Amino acid sequence: MLSLCFLPARAAVPSARLVCVRAASGQPAAGRTDDPQFRPLDIGRRREVVQQARERRRATLPPPRHERQPVNQQWGDVWPAPRTFHPDAVPLPLRQGFVKRPNAQAPPGKHANAELMKIANFLHLTPPVIERQCRALAKFCTPWPEGLTDERLDELRPLEVITQDFLHASPTLRHPDARVVSLKVPLSCLDLTETDRDKLLRLVGDRHDPKTDVITLTADRCPLRRQNRDYALYLLTVLYFESCKREPWEAELRTVADAEKFVWAGSASEAAVAPLGAAADVVNSYGEAVTRLHNEGEDESTLAEYRKAVVALLGLPEHVGAN
Amino acid sequence: MSRIRLIQLGSSCLSKANFQNICSSGFKAPAARGLQVPADPTRRQRPDLLYSRLELELRAHDPAVLDSYVTFLQQAARHLGVTTGKLWEPPRHYQRLSLLKSVHIFAKHKVQYEARTYFRVLELLRLTGSTADTYLEYTQRMLPEGIAMKVSRYARESLPEHLSQRPDQSESDGKS
């Protein structure tokens, strides 16, 4: 009995949602006439009303700036400094972004495009602007001296000082390599005898490049660049002065066995050849052949030269032992 | 009452001389305080340095921005009369990290990060110190975000005087 009472009541009362849908369709409710006493209840936002309001709001806004810009404007005045991309200020139909089907979809447009706003734009550095700015800066530049060729520069300024500067975004201004100073010195610019040069090369070790004959001194032990530069120059001074010095014990230390290269003058080979009493030029050519053999190693050419010199020295016939 | 009297005394008694005497220990010229003072044109200026070359190494996260910036560098060099040498691209470097997603356990679940670095090196030849400073200041002010620059300066200097002759020769010259 109770359930029968409730069922018809639920069916009889129309729900609020039902009323709303009928009203949004814009037509009077089924079964209702335009009765002035009973207006249809309108709870929701009708789509047409909302759209009309939006259009009215858009009409009152001015057109975007790029539609009002003259064609012959100075772009450098419109975009004078680096700035985040603003779509209404740029009169270009730009598109940027990823699409899943590039053959079917166009990339997103410039309005509300986060990718376009994130990336650094170079709109403030168009070629005419660069030219204008460089023209203004040209007065602070000085020309390279006329007639200063690379060879002349090597003569006048043989020393090369290498330093590094860094520019990057970081919590700190400092860079540990900014204080490092390298000094490149060609040995040809220093006044050195053979023994001086030998001593210098021993002191310097692998800082010397045999191909270019340049010494590289790198200083990074001081905290400031200026101090490292002074230290490098001091090091060069010390090396040069030490290599020019002669210690009393150096003469005793260097025996024939210590020499890197064979020297004909005063050698046992010269002493052995002297009693033969050959002509001076023959002895000299033999000396050169022996020197080459020792210093450059055994080679077809060195051995041939030695053979020729020996044959001349001993006065043997040319074809002896020739195979 | 006493406070008002002090102010009156200050305004009447504190002449310029008194002020300087009182503050002489703390008063310093602007230059001594580390402020920039316009250079006096009558002072002797240091001679211009000479650079045989300048190497600009650029590192960036975005290759398109790097390309645009290098184009700007080349145009600026052309307009300022700077000779450009080589331009080459060292191989890019991708740093990849695979880290655990969770603070504790779940080692099967990782998260991967990647940092991409692109390089470009531009060589400028035969510059004076003024030109180099002007060019570098201009281009460094225009450096976009995401790019870092390293400038290697190869300055050419003459040999110091004390190294131009042998020490024994200079000693004998000095003595004579």
TrEMBL record, chain B:
It is found in: Mitochondrion. Signal peptide: none annotated. GO terms for biological process: translation. InterPro entries: Ribosomal_uS10 (IPR001848), Ribosomal_uS10_dom (IPR027486), Ribosomal_uS10_dom_sf (IPR036838), Ribosomal_uS10m (IPR040055). Keywords: Mitochondrion, Ribonucleoprotein, Ribosomal protein. The keyword Ligase does not apply. It comes from the Eukaryota. The keyword Transmembrane does not apply. Its main location: mitochondrion. GO terms for cellular component: mitochondrial small ribosomal subunit. Belongs to the universal ribosomal protein uS10 family. HAMAP family: Ribosomal_uS10. PANTHER family: MITOCHONDRIAL 28S RIBOSOMAL PROTEIN S10 (PTHR13334), SMALL RIBOSOMAL SUBUNIT PROTEIN US10M (PTHR13334:SF4). This is Small ribosomal subunit protein uS10m. The gene is mRpS10.
